[in-house]
């Protein structure tokens, strides 16, 4: 497991009337030995010989955190505890105890003015204000360009991610629903105008709801709506026409004629109405109107694509369904409401973009995003999305089934979604990982027809499987679990200490597994050398080894899977056999941790330890730059014949048990250009994905370390 150390950070903040959204970037710890290895391998792969990258790429993470404005002091304590305003807890200024002069935090939103003095008093920092509309648009453009599956639709409780053609993104309508609503027509990067808006937004829902229900938080009010029945409060068409439809103009009896209209004739006091019904009626009234006003503006400018953001939405399924129904109904299905996964952080992301504009280009990712606004071609962001806080089941209003929304379309019936709760003081919405270039894998037989998924998990019969398995896989990622545990307890020193203890304990467990496997590696190699045939590999050996003895493969890419015995006792002996035949071997591992998969940062140490037991591995590792210094403890009496071909390690650009060959690291793409053998190992890489993929060279697909082959010769593991 990797444990990230923050060596530098920049903090960006959007301070609004009700919420504070904070973003900070943390760089990965630097390791000089690791850097030497990477430089050596990149030189061998030709990435430094007139290559396109002439500047350093900084690995790291972009963190998203939210606080309620009424808990501003907790936000200030969070910034102080991580020393974000001074470069992070491992920065030179923090270690020296020196207080830098003129510390600036980029900020946007009305609160940037309201609370500026408090930030100066408590942290000694100045809030440098950025224009709110500029930031909203820049943040949305960044997300839609840089993050795959950022946008999605939400109808009838079903979320579907939208593939956006980057060349056809503009123009679009951006509807930011905060306390009020701003409607912005975006024509390109830096090209936009606010064309409309309304003062009826999230602040209206929260303000009226607070007055009428006595709820203490926005989310408490939202939870109430889940148990509401708006027909007890809203006047329906049937209430006016004796339970009948007004069919002449196409209105059903269950159409809302007037929100809260039924309370006019009822001889009741406020206390006689259920808070749940009030909350739902308010939510529907405001959401329907936002959807309708947004569509009318889209119609005015001839736009089909409308993106909704802002923390009023906050991933709430019923809110999104209601807005979507309004847009769909009034447009007769021609316009589409889409939502953003990082909906509440548009302004803070825009402030993030502004650093380079003001000359603070030490964090070069900003420079790249600004310099290449159509999507920086040399960097990419990978997401491990984590939900933190209490999970809420999506609202299933308890009204009569026939109750419908404004305009006569059926009421949304969201079921089974998991919603974010903002009940915790510091809600970490997610983490974006800055990774090297993601390129199309050059050995794909036909990238245009390539589909990585063996099974379409969006099909109805697989949705339960997807929910039970894949969502669990994501939530079980141990680094994110540590972050979640620490954040849930306010990021206190004690929480960090216990989080670090867990991380180290888990790492130690993996280390013990590696050590145990390494201990039996010499005996396994001796046993393999004495065997005439290799179980389960007879066909592979004949087709790809024996028949190739006079002309071995030039380079083999081995996609490794699990840490421990899987890589040490499975893939390394296979790599050794290929090296013995005179084939260059490139071990390909995850860029980021996923379950118990070994990572590219961990592999060199494992190879170095294994090399103490095998001269072939040692010579190949030295040739490939994996062993950059003299190794103590290498057995000097090993009789293996030396290998003249290199053994290398590259990252794949992934942080998942699966792999999508449309997006791989530039290192892997470069290594693939001279490769004529692929070996995919693991259920995720060779079965759940890529089982049906076709490649330009011989390919072996192995579900475990002991087989599936394709390409020119393709053998599948039964």
Tell me about this structure.
The chain has 718 residues and is of the alpha/beta class. The chain is built from 22 helices and 26 strands. The strands form six sheets. Strands 5-4-1-2-3-18-15 form a seven-stranded mixed sheet, sandwiched between helices. A seven-stranded mixed sheet has the order 7-6-14-13-8-9-10, with helices on both faces. Helix 8 packs across helix 10, helix 16 (493-530) packs across helix 18 (565-580) and helix 19 packs across helix 20. The two termini are 31 Å apart. Residues 1-10, 49-58, 89-95, 358-379, 384-429, 630-639 and 706-718 have low confidence and may be disordered.
Q: How are the SSEs placed, and which strands pair?
A:
Blueprint: E1 9-15, E2 19-27, H1 32-44, E3 60-68, H2 72-82, H3 92-96, E4 104-108, H4 111-114, H5 116-123, E5 126-129, H6 132-146, E6 151-155, E7 158-161, E8 172-177, E9 181-188, E10 191-198, H7 202-213, H8 218-225, E11 235-236, H9 237-240, E12 256-258, H10 275-301, E13 305-309, H11 317-330, E14 336-340, H12 346-357, H13 364-371, E15 379-385, E16 392-393, E17 418-419, E18 427-436, E19 438-439, H14 460-475, H15 478-488, H16 493-530, H17 538-545, E20 555-559, H18 565-580, E21 584-589, H19 603-611, H20 615-623, E22 647-651, E23 664-665, H21 666-672, E24 677-681, H22 683-688, E25 698-702, E26 714-716
Helix pairs in contact: 6-12, 7-10, 8-10, 10-11, 12-13, 15-16, 16-18, 19-20
Protein name: pantothenate kinase
InterPro entries: ARMT-1-like_metal-bd_sf, ARMT1-like_metal-bd, ATPase_NBD, Type_II_PanK
Keywords: ATP-binding, Coenzyme A biosynthesis, Kinase, Nucleotide-binding, Transferase
